Fold each of these.
Amino acid sequence: MQLFLDGIFLGSIYALFAIGFTLVFGILDRLNLAHAAVFTAGALVGIEIVTRLGVPIWLLIPMVLVLGAVLGILIERIAFRPLAGRHDAHFAGLISSIAFGAIVLSVLQAMYGADTRRFPADIFPRTRVEILGATVSLLQVVILIVSVSLMIVLTWLVAKSKLGRGMRTIAENPHAAAVLGLNVGRISSTTFALSSALGAVAGVLFTLNVNAASLGIGHAVELKALAVIVVGGMGSLPGALIGGLILGVAEVLAVNYIGSSWRDMVAFGLLFLILILRPQGLFGARKTREV
Amino acid sequence: MLTEYSSLITLIALTAILAFSFYAVLIAGQLSLAQVGLASLAAFTSSLVVPAEPLFGFIPPLLIGIVFGMCVGIIAAFILGLPVIRLRGVFLAIATLAFGEMVRIFLINQSWTNGAQGMSFAKLVGIEIAWIALAVVAFWFWRLSGSRMGRAFAAIREDELAATTMGIDVPRYRMASFVIAGAVAGLYGVLLAYFSRFADPNEFSFTAAVDGLVTAVVGGVTFFVGPVLGSIFLSVLPEVQRVVGIDAGWIRPTISGVLLLVVILFLPGGLSGLIPRRRSAKRLIVDPSERPDLPALPAPGTELVRLQGLGKSYGGVHAVRSVDLTVAAGEVLGLIGPNGAGKTTLVNMVTALTTPSTGRGTVLGIPLNDSTRAHRLAQAGVARTFQQIKLFNRLSALENVLVGGYRITHDTLLRRLVFLPSARRFEREAVAMASAQLIRVGLGDKAANAAGDLSYGDQRRLEIARALASHPSMLVLDEPAAGMNHVEAGRLSELIRSLAADGIAVLVIEHNVRMMLATCDRIMVLNFGEVIASGTPADIARDPKVLEAYLGSSGSDADADAAAALAAEDLAEATARSVGEHERGVSASGDGANESDDTQPEGDR
């Protein structure tokens, strides 16, 4: 039970990161590899804000959301929009987002150096509670609550709001959406903003969980998020949630029963198997080709 | 100078080799991130076989390592390719990335690699060996680019489905590009390990894969010098910054990031796109004596296609129900019917792009069933065009037609590698054949234009030329006159008649009924997936069921009756006129009957 809960907590962070990733892919059909840099930026800037200003954690989350959103808009404007209409936009977007991510990371390096940084020790009460025979910290519970509620809000936005309808229309056919008078550029920006806001908050929560942040943390999570969104189904929001939780639990179990050196094999083995057996993922729809 | 920078210069060559490994898959439109994983496998396993002393006294240890490493790369790429080759785009990238990470974790957990502590290698690779290896790899890709195989890769990159209907076995070529990339990756792994004298599996990480990909893309994947340029650019950049005195750790990655962004945003073809060059095969060869000797087409009247009760249903929807049909060499069979009647589904079954649900069919002796693959039919001599034009948009018109000639040309890669004169002769034959087709459809003056830049009507004609370049026994045209005015449609009609006179069986779908009446020997009318009429153009024009299909339920009210009667007169008149013109060898022109519905009683399509 303890292992299972630990897996759920870890998985909810993976899911929060992955859901932003998959949102952009599902709606705009672009893989944004700068997402990892946003994650790192959320973590490092979050630490800076808390250390300098001493803001409490409940105020930090909205601030980081805004930071992420701004970064998201920049990514869309700089790395993706200029490529619109190019035959290799898909591919060039991968590279330009890698470049943008590298720039963000180097700026972070300039600001904070390459050392590992931590939140102040007293940022969060170290209360522990017993649930179903397992010990969990209050922090873990908060992480779970924050990430799940953010995901619920996002899912509601996409499913019900006017903005969400616009997004789904663009996902279906961007040209038709533009003809219908939708502001495709603005909706794309908003999509990136939402996606990056979640990514930045995921960075804060991840850092709170392991209490260490460095420039490299984004990469490891990015690889796992790729596994998560493939397992869940590219572009599927509930898929990313379930995929994240599955991966979290599977990793914790693997560490316990097989050994930590083989831990990452679980993510990639799972990813590989899913791609071979069910390329559309657990919750994805298969696209058919047209002649 | 040279000694100071010798390790940088060696690394440029090695990085370029890694970039070539990505180039090999990118030219076939595949994004694989497995390359560093394959390199890692090759590097570490080669340490198990490389002897300390020359084998038999004269075979250098490094050569053994290189050969072994390339074999490991080939075998591993092949085994990896078996399951992943059917994945596309991002999915392929992620699957291969997962493979790379799995290799890394596997090697780290092995005792013979010393795990994360790393492993020492002898220093066997210096500046000369690295550049010789790069020269060999670059030479291979240079000779590949103008060969039939290189054209097949480009065709697959541009449009897989169209490539299949040219007779290209797409999975096999995709696998070939995978395996070539694996061999180059293996070479890179071995060279890198025996150059840097030390390797640990963590060096062959996702980041390293991304760096390799970035190098290939920055250099550009449309020209074989791209990987070299990318490598020089990205390797020299930090060095230049160091020399000019930029020392802060963060400035270098910032500048590199910005430059990468600038290259990718403003240089779509990468750095190699800046090099002005003669586009290959730009000039037409019009001398008929240079054309290849072609096998004879089946004798006119030979039955090429026989369908019996062929049908296709999607879920509960019957797109085509039980169609019986024969097509003979030298005849033009027209297929008409309202939108959604099942015409395209039927020709997709005939060209094996769609598997029939019921019934039997044989095309050029090949039965149509689950295991019939479209490229096999194409190789047997079926060529087609598409309702939604499927050209290789970034290739020139002539290059498009050259790909079309895949079936009747020889693979020239091996000959080109050793500069055999026959390679040049075969290439000239292919160009001569393609030129003849371009001129035949009237695009001789647009050979060098990119296919995507041509006008709509020209694109339709180019598709026909591309189909003809395969010297087909049977040609399937799906709405070839769409977007053409009636003068152009008239010329097209003449072209189709002349193809039939050459002995080609032509199966044509078209909404331009006037043109169809003038062009076809027989016409079949489909509605709701069923054949409602079949016969000579004159019979079809008078068939009441045909009129009803086109005009809706006649007889329900007086207006519809009147419209039907008018349309019937119109059709009959058009037939009489066009049959007459047909006999005089002049195609139909002018306005008159319209075929598709009663909301647009006049005007041309």
Note: The two ends of chain A are 52 Å apart (CA to CA).
Amino acid sequence: MKEKFEPNIIGFLCNWCSYAGADLAGTSRIQYPPNLKVIRVMCSGRVNPIFVINALQQGADGVLIGGCHPGDCHYERGNYLARRRMAVLKKLLDYTGIDPNRVRMTWVSAAEGHKFAEVVKEVTEDIRKLGPMQHFKRENKW
Amino acid sequence: MVNEKELQDVVEKTIKRDDVKYIVGYEKGTYGFQVTPSFAYKPEDAKKFIFSPLCVHNLTVFPMLEEKPPLRKGEEPDSRKVGVVVKGCDSRAVIQIIQEKGLDRDKVVIIGIPCTGVVDPKKIEAKFPGIIKNADIKDDGDNFVITIDGKSHKVAKDELMPDKCKTCEYPSPILYDILIGKEIKSTKKEDYKNVKNFEKKSMKEKWEYWEKQFDKCIRCYACRNACPLCYCKECLVDQLNPQWVRRSVDVSENTAWNFLRAFHLAGRCIGCGQCERVCPMDLPLMELNKKLEKDVKELFEYIPGINAEEKPLLAMFKPDDPEEFIL
């Protein structure tokens, strides 16, 4: 029997907005796909592109980065800096033949539980269509 | 063409100054088409300085590579300046480092040389194979005049120049203390033709191409060491805790390294082409650099290495940066 492909998505959510948004989605009993594995970071500006590349190496099929809406960042400018970084990283991935849609970014505030569920649904469906990430998966052989 | 006598006089005069420690320039190598970096500590060292189309190195790395051992008790730090001989592209590297506060403007003496294009060592070795004892190259308008053991050849510049020189927009140094010769205006325009052609390919074709390239990489990190802008005290790939990139040489780790190298140079790479020149496996690293240079120009209207007063690209933002990719 062939198993259905279930995408494995890593989510870097900022402590102040997106993580609280995910919490709200949970406490409000909103259903969303269980494919997202959340890692809490203090700010979306903390997300170094190496985190994304490393996640893709270690078997993630996609990465979602959640931050506060522009102007709402707890540290005032972290999400703006993250936005620039990810814009450049996505261009680089596109140029080397890795679908840039595997790396997504979203603004979710602490009050947007519904939006968070919608975003996770959309990202999961997109990555399900793209299929497993096999470009540069790390092989653990030693 | 640069007057070598003038260059040597300037270097001699500068090294005589009390506040200059040494000057980095070029000297003739021991055989063939080789030119090596040269250090002048004394006025008589200035005599060996040359400048020819073979001077491909970006000497800006040397002030950054300088080792600063801890001071002994009561010892004063050496606050003397370092002199560098720069071409147009190299001067942009100096500007970029000054912009990032890696170097102090007061700590460097920049001797600028307007450059009319250099020779790609790999191309010239392919054209004239074999062991050559004595070779000389002169710049002659649209041609290079190459003299090998007394015989002279005339070769069109386009044939021997690296790609970066074919689209060079800044042949004259932008920032300098002393300029040798006259400034040159560029007639060339960077149109990113290769990058645009490659972008049209399908995802599968792109990855097949890059997988093959990254597979060749032996991770000698020559690209990092030759790069004037890779001057972190501890490189991310040398870090062991956390170890983001493993030391094994396979497609996965090579890809991670090459992505990182390209990303860390986004908005900083000034296109001197040193990474590609030193690569023993001939990876087309400049293609990645050029791609990001083009995108940074399009997305943020930013050109690295032009203005030392500006803030580094990824350390600043505008509220209206492009965000069509954000959900």
Note: Strands of chain A lie at 9-14, 36-41, 62-67, 103-107.
